[in-house]
Fold:
Amino acid sequence: MSRATPKLQWRNATKRFGDTTVLRDMDLDVAAGRSLVIIGGSGQGKSVTLKLALGLLTADGGWVSLDGQNPAGLTGRARRAFFSKVGVLFQGAALFDSLTVWENVAFRLLNADGVPRAKARAKALLALEQVRLRPDIADHYPSQLSGGMQKRVGLARAVVAEPDILFFDEPTTGLDPISAGAINALIVDQVKRLGCTAVSITHDLVSAATIGDEIAMLHDGAIVWRGQPADLESSGNPYVDQFVSGRADGLMAPAL
Amino acid sequence: MSPAVAIARAMNTVAYLGSPIVGAARVAGAIAVFAGRALGAALSGPRFVRQTMSQLLAIGFYSLPVVGLTAVFTGAALALNIFSGGGRFNAEQVMPQIVALGILRELGPVLAALMLAGRASAAMAAEIGAMRATEQIDALETLSTDPFRYLVAPRLIAAIIAVPLLTVVADIIGIAGGWLVAVQVLGFSPTVYLRNTLGFVVAWDIGSGVIKAAAFGVIIALMGCYHGFTASGGARGVGRATTHAVVSSAILIFAVDYLLTSLFAHR
Ligand SMILES: Nc1ncnc2c1ncn2[C@@H]1O[C@H](COP(=O)(O)OP(=O)(O)O)[C@@H](O)[C@H]1O
Ligand SMILES: [Mg+2]
Structure:
């Protein structure tokens, strides 16, 4: 890894909700152009980690920096500018159900960038093609699509404005293995095409190994291991071993 | 009981009584901050005209039947009550004037607003609450779009326009309901009834009702949006948000109605 300033970093990040501390002095960083996957059990704070990086939640301690900016303090124009270089695929795709597929994909172009409708639609159709969706679903509503197709539309929406960092929150959760494989391949595709940095969250190890250059494991509010996908099986780390083998007994108790 | 225990008990009682007050103050503060951001978003650009138009349609146009039906029955019932009550001191003949006053100053705006608290405020809380639960509001932010501009401002502007317009409709239909009963059931002359009403009403009767209605529009949109935005806990949370939106809108409508009426009473 280069010694240059990381593209994105969390330093001593702490996040509490009421009496429960979800993240505790967590340190993590991602170099520009790399794809980092954060793995960990349900409710360990993976989504919270991602939302801190996006400034959708504010840390109670420590800080986050993306391209040298802490997103939490940004408002107005600076906030919009910050998000113009970011693409996010949310866990449930988070498509706007009152808008058609193409209006979802072109949302940023239409509502933030002031691109005329005809031109925005053309760009949306192109993005749909890139995620291997047929153009005739452009005028459908999200509720008419399967879960896998919704994820693809979400991916198209995330990449349409060519961001330089992409975030994926459990991109394969809830999909059958074949749809999951297709989404993984599309993610790898798009990250390579855009040459961008990627941060993904998953508890799917196949997905993690496919899309990640590096893997970090989050447990009990901190990063307990970091390494290459190839080292997952032989990490020698008790948390990773238990996660990989799927044993219910060990250091980690199953989330009930 | 030792003094220490007595003091501790007393403190507990204070804390027990105090915590709802502190809680209420915190909610009031949160709503004030929310209202400030909402007004800021409504007053500054960029405006989402498309969203505002569709809210105008949803809040205003599609509420016409509900508001119309409420108004016609209320006007009719009011006419019957005032006629029979007025008969006790031989004042049946001023019934048209009293019905007009009651509808224009009080019942038109309050009933229109209450129906909209049930219809529009609830719909706003449910829709925005569901958007919160499915991360659509987070998605808006990451797409460089301020949720206050995109979601709240259009609803606020639409409600401020729609509730006064619906109030005028309720005024007309309510008075027509009274007229219908007076003519069909109570034997009033249609033209005399109308002449008595129109000759009596002054612009301020209508204007004060319309001003109230605009204030009620603010309440309806703010309560619907606030409770939707702060919804948490999945489907149950959305249900709770909807209930809170309707109940808080209704209570605030009555409270602000009294407040404005007492301000206007001197005119
Ligand atoms: N907005 C919130 N308010 C309260 N608690 C939250 C909120 N977001 C997350 N949490 C809590 O933080 C913990 C971690 O959540 P999350 O990051 O979503 O887990 P996951 O690793 O499954 O993505 C959970 O216990 C969750 O209940
Ligand atoms: Mg999650």
